[in-house]
Structure prediction request, 129 residues.
Amino acid sequence: MNNPRKVLLVENDEFTRYMMREIITALGVEVGIAENGQTCIDMVSSAPSEYGLILMDLHMPLLSGIDATKKIREAPMNPPNNVPIIAVTADAAYHDEAVVKKLGMDGFTPKPVSPGRILKIIDKFCTAA
Prediction:
């Protein structure tokens, strides 16, 4: 069954992953974890209706967040190709709505991410029906 409030956190840095998972969980939102873009693709492919939002790091080994987003957007079914994807990055080159939209993402948030910012993103993109 689709749970529109479940978030998939895609982050290769262990500390950032831990902190963001704790924040999301404290907000009362279920969270799945992928350590790289390929794991994200595998998780989304195996459960396309599971996630209401993907928080995607951009620079990761194995498969970048940019390439993972392209693969998700190319998926033949809806979901997962319509799931909101938010770039989560410290790279200032991607701190621009127009830039991330061209990548197929729905927005961005700079690192480090505050609890208030995560709450705003979840409320905007991942509200329960």
About this structure: The radius of gyration is 13 Å. Residues 14-26 form the longest helix (13 residues).
